[in-house]
Design a protein that fits this description.
- The chain has one domain: Aminopeptidase.
- The protein has 9 helices and 12 strands.
- It is globular, with a radius of gyration of 29 Å.
- The chain is of the alpha+beta class.
């Protein structure tokens, strides 16, 4: 019987089209879209035109004394990743302002009063003081013990500064500073004003950034980073650090906008208690604030 049954040939089966190349092409397109989406997220993270304002504070405190030093270095910093733009505005320590919950005082006492009342609140108090007087929203602070500058600079093998004109005790020219030299450079008050000291501090900051980003310094970065974190107290979250570092790196090619509140922007006067202080001339200060911080 089997011999009499009709033979089933391949033509009797329904053909099912198989298109492996089309499937692979769809998967390839989906993969490219995912990669593109990830790249867009990365670009947004590093380049989003979100302004970040940070207050940099240099104190003369020490671990033994606690955080009861005054902030003689006050630098209001703004960072715009997309441009990239990094602006630093140094504020005179004797500027007479209104400190929340304290009253009218020198701006460099805002940190001191807050820390004396409750440890760990100094940075936030300075941010509130900046907000009330300058109308600039600041969400992050970095408090640096100035004595730690010595180890930070030495961990980089020293830094080079180039002066176009005499600054402090240094004539025009290029000089290599050790850690102790760098600290003396920013603290030197002989024959110079607080405004000159602010300028020297900015020169040192830019020199340290330039040296740390130089390829020859990369092997030294672990020790440098360790020395910095030993003397810095900050509320900047970890997720912000790569973004900020990338902006600082790009700013090395376009330059940083370093400014100070200059002598013509303040009015010296004597308080009822006999203290020599500086009243801000807001007609001159406010345009500078608007230009740098886009308020």
């Amino acid at each position: 019987m089997e011999d009499t049954q009709p033979t089933r040939t391949m033509d009797m089966f329904q053909r099912i089209p198989v298109q492996p190349a089309t499937i692979r092409k769809k998967r390839s397109k989906r993969g490219r879209k995912i990669i593109l989406f990830i790249l867009v997220l990365i670009a947004f993270y590093f380049l989003a035109p979100l302004r970040t304002n940070i207050i940099l504070l240099g104190t003369d405190d020490s671990p033994e004394r606690g955080n009861l030093g005054r902030t003689d270095t006050i630098i209001l910093t703004t960072i715009v990743p997309l441009k990239p733009y990094v602006g630093m505005l140094s504020i005179p320590r004797d500027l007479w302002v209104t400190i929340p919950n304290v009253g009218e005082q020198r701006i460099n006492t805002a940190y001191f009063f807050a820390e004396a009342n409750q440890a760990g609140t100094g940075g936030k108090a300075v941010m509130q003081t900046i907000r009330q007087n300058f109308d600039v929203r600041v969400y992050y602070y970095a408090v640096i013990r100035m004595a730690g500058v010595v180890n930070a600079v030495d961990s980089l093998g020293g830094v080079d500064i180039t002066l176009d004109a005499p600054v402090g005790q240094y004539p025009a020219g290029t000089f290599q500073l050790s850690g102790s030299d760098a600290l003396a450079f920013v603290r030197d008050r002989s024959g110079s004003s607080d405004f000159a000291r602010m300028q020297r501090t900015q020169i040192l900051i830019e020199a340290m950034l330039k040296k740390s980003f130089a390829p020859s310094s990369w092997p030294l970065l672990p020790q440098f980073i360790l020395s910095v974190f030993q003397v810095v107290d900050t509320n900047i979250p970890i997720w912000q650090w790569p973004r900020l570092i990338f902006v600082l790196l790009r700013a090395q090619f376009v330059g940083m906008d370093s400014r100070t509140i200059t002598p013509d922007m303040v009015i010296p006067f004597q308080t009822s208690g006999g203290a020599q202080v500086l009243a801000p001339n807001w007609e001159l200060v406010n345009p500078l604030i608007r230009e740098m911080f886009g308020r």
